[in-house]
Amino acid sequence: MTARGVWSVDPRTGERREEVAAEATAQDVDAAVRAAHAARGSLADRAVRAAFLRTAAASLAGAEASLVEAADAETALGRIRLTGELARTCHQLRAFADLVDEGSFLDVIIDRPDDTAVPPVPDLRRYRVPLGVVAVYAASNFPFAFSVPGGDTASALAAGCPVVVKAHPDHPATSERVAAVLRGAAAAHGLPEGVIGLLHGFDAGVELVRHPLVAAAGFTGSVRGGRALFDAAAARPAPIPFHGELGSLNPVLVTRAAAGERAEEIGAGLAASMTLGTGQFCVKPGLVLVPDGASGDGLVAALAGQVSRAAPGVMLDRRMSDAFVAGVAERAALPGVGVPVPAEADAERRVSPGFLTVPAARLTAAGPHDLLLEECFGPVTVVARYRGEDEADAVLSRLPGNLTATVHLSAGEAAGEGAAADVLARLTRIAGRVLVDGWPTGVAVALAQHHGGPYPASTSTSTSVGGTALERWTRPVAYQTTPPALLPPELRDGNPLGLPRRVDGRWER
Amino acid sequence: MTARGVWSVDPRTGERREEVAAEATAQDVDAAVRAAHAARGSLADRAVRAAFLRTAAASLAGAEASLVEAADAETALGRIRLTGELARTCHQLRAFADLVDEGSFLDVIIDRPDDTAVPPVPDLRRYRVPLGVVAVYAASNFPFAFSVPGGDTASALAAGCPVVVKAHPDHPATSERVAAVLRGAAAAHGLPEGVIGLLHGFDAGVELVRHPLVAAAGFTGSVRGGRALFDAAAARPAPIPFHGELGSLNPVLVTRAAAGERAEEIGAGLAASMTLGTGQFCVKPGLVLVPDGASGDGLVAALAGQVSRAAPGVMLDRRMSDAFVAGVAERAALPGVGVPVPAEADAERRVSPGFLTVPAARLTAAGPHDLLLEECFGPVTVVARYRGEDEADAVLSRLPGNLTATVHLSAGEAAGEGAAADVLARLTRIAGRVLVDGWPTGVAVALAQHHGGPYPASTSTSTSVGGTALERWTRPVAYQTTPPALLPPELRDGNPLGLPRRVDGRWER
């Protein structure tokens, strides 16, 4: 069988631009994984890893013009957005380099012998070691930040794991260029090419997660695709951790008091957040609980005004815009659903943002309206009008897990009045990030970030963004009664590497 | 259908002692899980949790005589061992109480706003929250330490998660008594009974892991049973973390130089470790690589001397001793396998320890001898005689994941001579705990402990013993731009609770 060609497609026209590569065969997958596995040892030195990540950042930044051009040509995300995304990606690589140097992620804990304990404690020294080859499944909507050079790649390399990326078919040319830049950075530090592999093709992705030498996987994408890969990872003879980000509705609750104080501001903020990037963010607010009555009406009017003036945009591929149009139509056809601003596609494949309204009472029990509680990728949101807090709570309690949950409060509620603390506790149960008076779009790269949440937001409890993301690619190992000469330097007495460590319960910094 | 009775059986005679309870129906499972779910809020206060755990420890210690008697009657593990195990269990509960007070497990990270970052960083404050109801599957071989009041229960309660335990059928009466003691301790702190549920029956165990309100599971047992539950957890509409400890061979490598120096000592140590508790430990050394030649012969002779003098013991149940005898016979029948001391069962159901020998060359490639690389629960081990280091390495490289891996070194090797560091690196790849010049039996309860390892040692990267075990029952949540009045006190400015926290990258202690 001849391998099929992988084409770069212009989403603005639907036309094929160039043939970039061939879909990977099973042999190609095996070769990439074996090369990565053979490269494990080359990443053992933390200083080399940190230097490699910094060089990768500098090289990507140096290639900005051509990378942004390549990405725009096959994603239509626009140069401004893509320039920002590349800067974010470079910052992320540097931030992980800093974390590699700092060493907290090693979680060093040392207990010296204690014969009085029950049972006695021998000399025990624990830290985290890399898991091995990591499979990264790139997302469609971030050709840099959640793709070949994205968070999972950066954190896996930082943790000491070689990476094999399954490219997203929406930007194969960008993926190839970026991989070449990363391999150049690796070569500059004497690292083999195998530290960063790249594969194209659906079947290759399935082969990859099943490969015996793959030790863990990261995924950002749809529930359908992600769940299939999660299931394959769990069904292996030796299952592996699968960190998948599959989908999120990102509910927003606007309290009655908040709507009373800031209806227009909230409506405008919502319009900006839901239309950003043509609604193609995993943290797009997809369900907004707005009170009935005059202030809620004002919010909806402000939203309608802004959304109807928003520019149309081109989605990442034709399949997506078709699914978007069909998904909106199916939702709009449900009984009781209003369409203040219709989301539509024009003859030139551009989609205009829109939104739907529905009485929250339709969402408090299972039924056909449950479709409104499923993510619809693209520039649309659902405004559910609630009568009382109980009704809003009833809807929130029916939601699956989310990456984010947001509440807009009045000044008094923000100061602690009313039941605002209870609302926050409820949102905490359904999301990995809880926001007050903000919008979920925009995911900061920070130590305290958490980008994950109860299923289907994530298939694991770890984060794909932020300083603690290295955790997902490591496992602890404890050394018992190991002679000083044979201990890894991270675990030796006297803390020769100056790491943050916990020794006999006390912190050493 | 009438519920089947659950009987306590005397393993010394095989006779039924008493009917303890009925197997749980699907309705019973649902009721226990709902009661646990309803009890979540009662565990929110860390001070209450810590006090409850300490009272539980004191109450169990206070009931020592009757609990040990009950456990000995249905496990035959003996009063000395069970008294020690109960002390360990109480120590573990107190140790988790201390960790709850100390608060490191909350992993508090705070980043204050930084508008200069790309993208900008808003106020972000992250800590770990309890996952919800935890299902604990009790082990046969530790009626206290890995059962109703064991590590998973203690760490889950410490993390703020109510627990529903699936009792092991080998000690149902002990399980009921212990659960009553724990519920009494809960009541003393005003906690509802639902914080600790108890169910009997195989079907109930399967129902439990499938229940929509169960948020995570912990398991200690066999590959077959554990894998079935792992698969059920992964196949749920919303999969949950399943932390299973399924099996481990616990390889030991004796270097030629070590055998040259300490053949007798190592042989005697191995005999003690493999026969301890009638070989019914998950960390029993099950494969020992010993050099050929005179010093290795001396080691085997010392082992044979000690093992042939070891007292017979009663295994936990008849199914186990039958499986042990059959497993040993199947292994002994393989070509080239020697039986210096036969492991046997007598007419009174007591098993005598024994061991097998095999040329390591039989284990370097796939074939019928792979059976020798599978755990055989009970007092037997396999001594594989190797000719050169390459042969020993080849065997190690074929092993699945292990809880432990041990090497015995000469004094010179311990000081760094030869390839000892390489050996440690290889052992690190296949185990969660690496020991030098020791024996894996005896798992200390300590902050630096790690009890887990690559599959099938564990289905996850977390530990079931030691200070970091709370991690498996929690998930991070980040709060963005949340007003001070609404922040959990753990995350407020000024560190009102005096927690270890990381603020803007700096540690606060």
Q: What would you say this structure looks like, in words?
A:
Two copies of one chain form a homodimer. Chain A is globular. In chain A, helix 3 runs antiparallel to helix 6. In chain A, helix 5 links the parallel strand 5 (133-137) and strand 6 (163-166). The model of chain A has no long low-confidence stretch (mean pLDDT 97). Chain A folds into two domains: 22-100 and 129-246 and 460-473, Aldehyde Dehydrogenase, Chain A, domain 1, CATH 3.40.605.10; 251-436, Aldehyde Dehydrogenase, Chain A, domain 2. Chain A has a seven-stranded mixed beta sheet, with helices on both faces. In chain A, 61% of the residues are buried. Chain A has helices spanning 26-38, 46-62, 64-75, 79-102, 151-159, 172-188, 202-210, 223-235, 256-275, 294-309, 318-332, 389-397, 411-414, 420-430; strands spanning 5-10, 15-22, 108-111, 124-130, 133-137, 163-166, 196-199, 214-220, 242-245, 251-254, 287-291, 313-314, 338-341, 344-345, 350-352, 354-359, 380-386, 402-408, 431-436, 474-480, 501-503, 506-508. The first copy, chain A, is an alpha/beta fold and 509 residues long. The interface between A and B is large, with 84 and 83 residues.
